[in-house]
């Protein structure tokens, strides 16, 4: 059978199984938004985009794909930054969008848990939790369009990892369609269960390479009634990290965010929004946005004030102010958002999401700055990020007048010099963005031979035909 | 080659690789304590007990075992309750004790982490953390002799899971010798790292079936400066669980323990210690021990008082008292310990560590009590445990005059009726004790066909020769 005939037969089978709007031809204009990645850097190809409305339809799709030897790229909100859901095989691949599996199944207030279809948008889950006076703490820039299934498949991070953990730490149960079409059922809301291998841990972070997550049960938390936000200035990242340790102790781990912003980023925030103005008098090398959430019975203001007093006393803090209103707190956070906006205005640049041990954060930033200064004259480093998790976005802007192709050509080499530094420190090139296709080679390169072997063995155990997201995570 | 010759050759090879005290003949008197399980119910057999002093020696042992086709049972403190480390093949199995790999490798106060050999006793880790004014929160009855490697291999639970999670949640990095003798290196102290498959999650809870954990990097926490303990009386488990939800909200998740004790257990505590006396006036169906830990900057007393006032108001609480001293707090906890002691005095009985969703705890206890009352007249149920985690030890004492053989014969059937109830509720027969050999059959029976298949595939991927802890977790 020719490839064309095989695809045509498969499309017939899909149309037989799904309703009309469930099957989009890969060449149709409607398919484009599923084939373009969020960065806009890549346009992929697929023979069809499929939009099942039930778990049963997902299983049917998998069986049809298996029969016609089509690969499957599961896709959530398609907001990833590493081309994890962009394939380029118009004859051999389908995109399976979970967007119509979008029902919140149930909320159990006594168990503090929520069950949801994989395609529910993160913000909807947050809203549903809030309606019950609870908190689903996962918080990302893309929360208005990313889906919980994608968050789980990439073990997404975000701004509140400090207090509540990565997505992995929030997942109690999973349900997934395996590559043989069977449904793996693990939708348990148990908080304590140590029976044998925990399969869901493999699916979390597997980026669609082992199966298709169709349902999730997550932990909820009490919604903090009091939120206190402070904007601080420190002499160095060293001081900032020591301040963070002090904050953990004094605030009893009630901090929800501890973000650092190198002073060089302030100009970028002003580029993003000319009205931006940090709420501090002096010109501090490191700006810090710190947030704490607690119940009404705890005086969060006193906690922060106690911390600031002790930090001044210990010489860890240059200046600091506590938001007196929600509007002021939002203004502090706006600086963090504006600096991302400013980078976007500068066009193509080098982005990272590095992580190291907290004790290595200052050394990592120093070394990266030195590397750029010595090897990439005219390029401008920016260091900011989730310092409380050891996760720094060390980005680099190209010289103003550099042509895009030259930037694109230099990017892998700029990244390589930063990655070398992180690798030497035992860190990660991917704190929260994942591997996908754009970082697959560096991922594979860093893995030890033992890990590569385990990885292949696990992949074969789940997906012997190699039909799940080929080209993601692993070389094809 | 005869089996005897093969074993003799292997023993020679072990003696060549390890020092004299590293090899104990399976028949030697010194071997007995490694072959007897902690419950004393089983005496196993092995051709040798090996006590390596380094990771390199562990690797050598694995290679020798592979060559001579000997199975390996890794053993930590040997304090498990499910015969996870007791083999019975005197010709084909060695016990590999990690007890001489007992060095704390390093503590990183900025990163709030500790690296340790797998054989370090849990209490030593807790002490080392405390010396640095930090907390390693894992807390178990056996903490004076269990080892961190065993805690990880079984994903141990304990008293503080509520606040700090299971062992799984405390592990940032692992190092393990794989069945081919290679060393899998994952001793990262990163808090945010979402690169691909997280192999360590498979080793956690694998009960020695996939490899030998030799090193661990764990999270540390600020040591709570204030600890408040309350002893409460409630009308029902329903009220207790609602109280717990209220406590989470008011105390901003600073609770470290929420234990329930059915009133029927108080007689058992008095059997354990005749001086035991609950600190409440009335005769409450449910006793609760609640503990909260926080920094010096938070008034924990006010939090508990606020909670008690609101709980009285809401009708969730009958009576309650807050410990006025550490001695009084210890007296509260002694009741919990005495009731375990009392059960031991009653001799052989049915022990469980069931878990269900928090919302199902009252129903589960009711159903179990009814099942015992109707099907096992003369047997006495006891319900107590870590209610904040949905984990109840629903134990059953046999009639006073029942001969031991009769108890032993009835035990599986008593367990079966309790397990059926938990299974119907989507719960677990093993919240924290693990599967081992004694619960392998029920484990296997409950697994879905999909999970059984995945389990076998993963086992084969790691351990194609089937040399790791045969008979544990899986049928031989």
From TrEMBL, chains A, B:
One Gene Ontology molecular-function label: FAD binding
SUPFAM superfamilies in alphabetical order: FAD-binding/transporter-associated domain-like, FAD-linked oxidases, C-terminal domain
UniProt keyword list: FAD, Flavoprotein
A Gene Ontology BP annotation from the UniProt entry: respiratory electron transport chain
Listed Pfam families: FAD-oxidase_C (PF02913), FAD_binding_4 (PF01565)
Keyword Flavoprotein: yes
Listed cofactors: FAD
UniProt domain FAD-binding PCMH-type: residue ranges: 42-223
Similarity-based family: Belongs to the FAD-binding oxidoreductase/transferase type 4 family.
PANTHER family: BLL6224 PROTEIN (PTHR43716:SF2), D-2-HYDROXYGLUTARATE DEHYDROGENASE, MITOCHONDRIAL (PTHR43716)
Name this polypeptide is given: FAD-binding oxidoreductase
Species of the source: Mesorhizobium denitrificans
């Amino acid at each position: 059978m020719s490839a064309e005939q095989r695809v045509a037969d498969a499309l017939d089978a899909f149309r037989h199984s799904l309703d009309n709007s469930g099957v989009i031809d890969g060449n149709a204009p409607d398919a484009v938004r599923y084939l373009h990645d969020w960065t806009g850097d890549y346009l992929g190809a697929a023979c069809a985009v499929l939009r099942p409305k039930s778990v049963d339809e997902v299983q049917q799709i998998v069986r049809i794909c298996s029969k016609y030897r089509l690969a499957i790229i599961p896709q959530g909100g398609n907001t990833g930054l590493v081309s994890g859901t962009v394939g380029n095989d118009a004859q051999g691949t389908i995109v399976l969008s979970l967007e119509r599996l979008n029902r919140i199944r149930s909320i159990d207030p006594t168990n503090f848990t929520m069950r949801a279809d994989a395609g529910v948008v993160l913000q909807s889950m947050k809203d549903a939790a809030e309606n019950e006076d609870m908190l689903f703490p996962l918080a990302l820039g893309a929360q208005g369009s990313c889906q919980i299934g994608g968050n789980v498949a990439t073990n997404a991070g975000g701004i509140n990892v400090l207090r509540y953990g990565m997505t992995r730490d929030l997942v109690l149960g999973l349900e997934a369609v395996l590559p043989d079409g069977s449904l793996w059922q693990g939708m348990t809301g148990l908080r304590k269960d140590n029976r044998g291998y925990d399969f869901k841990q493999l699916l979390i972070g597997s980026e669609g390479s082992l199966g298709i997550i169709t349902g999730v049960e997550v932990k909820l938390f009490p919604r903090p009634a009091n939120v206190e936000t402070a904007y601080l200035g420190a002499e160095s990242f060293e001081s900032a990290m020591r301040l963070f340790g002090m904050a953990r102790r004094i605030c009893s781990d009630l901090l929800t965010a501890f973000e650092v912003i190198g002073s060089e980023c302030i100009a970028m925030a002003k580029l993003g929004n000319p009205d931006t103005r940090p709420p501090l008098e002096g010109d501090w090398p490191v700006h810090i946005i710190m947030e704490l959430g607690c119940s009404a019975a705890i005086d969060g203001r006193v906690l922060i004030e106690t911390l600031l007093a002790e930090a001044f006393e210990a010489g860890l803090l240059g200046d600091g102010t506590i938001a007196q209103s929600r509007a002021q707190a939002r203004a502090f956070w706006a600086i963090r958002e504006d600096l991302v906006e400013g980078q976007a205005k500068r066009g193509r640049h080098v982005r990272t999401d590095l992580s190291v041990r907290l004790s290595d954060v200052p050394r990592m930033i120093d070394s990266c700055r030195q590397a750029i200064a010595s090897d990439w004259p005219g390029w401008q480093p920016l260091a900011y990020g989730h310092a409380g998790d050891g996760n720094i976005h060390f980005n680099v802007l190209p010289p103003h007048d550099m042509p895009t192709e030259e930037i694109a050509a230099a990017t892998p080499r700029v990244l390589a010099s930063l990655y070398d530094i992180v690798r030497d420190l035992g860190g990660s090139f991917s704190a929260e963005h994942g591997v996908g296709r754009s970082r697959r080679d560096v991922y594979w390169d860093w893995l030890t031979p033992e890990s590569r072997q385990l990885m292949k063995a696990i992949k074969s155990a789940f997906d012997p035909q190699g039909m799940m997201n080929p080209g993601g995570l692993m070389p094809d």
